[in-house]
Amino acid sequence: MTTEHDPVVHALGRLPSATPDASRAERVRLRCRAVLARRRAAAADPDPAGFARRVLEPAIACGLGVLYLAVVIHDALRWRGLL
User: Fold this and answer.
1) Which domain, by its residues, includes 27?
2) Ramachandran category for residue 47: left, alpha or beta (phi over 0 → left; psi -120 to 50 → alpha)
3) What is d(CA 60, CA 27) in angstroms, rounded to the nearest whole number?
4) What digits encode the pLDDT tens for the residues 40-70?
5) CA distances from 48 to 25, 42, 56, 60, 73 (A)
6) Would you say residue 38 lies in a domain?
7) What's the pTM value of the predicted model, to 2 decimals?
8) What is the tally of structural domains in the chain?
């Protein structure tokens, strides 16, 4: 199928061009700037709970996973009579 004989392409070509609404564009621009300002302020102000969230929680989860794996291996070896 070629585009030169496609009725959908011809119908799309007859559609009017979209014109941006200036007031809506300004509202979007202001919202974007506000979000960027909040992100900038959040990045400048270190969160004390951020350390726990970034470092301690994964370390605790990993430690509990290793402990669980050790118990499973211990039980499996005991069940097989190797311990």
Assistant:
1) 18-79
2) beta
3) 44
4) 988 877 766 777 788 889 999 999 999 999 9
5) 37, 12, 12, 18, 38
6) yes
7) 0.42
8) 1
